[in-house]
Design brief:
Length: 294
Amino acid sequence: VALKLASEPSAQAEAQMRHEALLGARLSHPAIVPIYELGYAEGGAMFVAMRLVRGAPLEKVAGASLADRLGLLSHLVDAADALAHAHDRGIVHRDVTPANIMIDRFGDTQLIDWGLGKQLPAQLARGADLNPKAERAGMVVGTAPFMSPEQARGEAVDELSDVYSLGAVLYWLLAGRAPYEGTLFSIVEAVREREPPRLTTLGTFPTPLVSIVERAMARRPRDRYASARALANDLRAYQSDQVMAAWRAPVWRRFFNLVRRHRVTVSAVAVAMAILLAVGAFATQRVISANHQA
């Protein structure tokens, strides 16, 4: 069990901790650390008890080579599944970054740090506390290189902002750098005003994954994946060479993938066809020989 104590003995700090604990208590997913208890220690400090997770964040384990980084793709799928679970309950994370996707000592994924999480307005009547740090209009919260344009503008955000941020993490995983770089102020301005450098200008990456990034990071929310679950499904489709929503493979590649997925069946059909052709050729030769003899 891990204990998280309030950063300072103040009403603001306790309100923030209570908020995070109440949001976490609404979530039950293998990739989200469970909350056990909210209470006060003997000295009067508020604490949150949660499962102890030992591991390292994605940003610490990502290797230098593209091949090494692509080996971490399954953890993004897990994070997308965790987000989908939260979104189903009307909760947005608002700080999806490589630092907040942890790989524990068993190799499992944990989407951590829900301190900036928010219950969407449609869910507020169910008793969730508003985030005391982030409810003023125009207030910008989050990690600048990975926040969505609407988040950088201080506008109200929904699930599609998290979709954008997860796409930004995939951008980082491919390129080995964040979508935006510079000072905090310049990054926020850039996120508000323009697209990041296109991945194709930074190197050679799998085309399907580039397409996933471009769709997830579309500047207009309506042009993104409709949900984190849809994004997760496309990542799984890429991993298994299935049809993707964001990218349609050329005919030759779809045929090759079909053959590879059904190798045994295709081999059996090929053998059967070879036998039929051989039998047909033999029979034809017999007929020709018989006609010559006649």
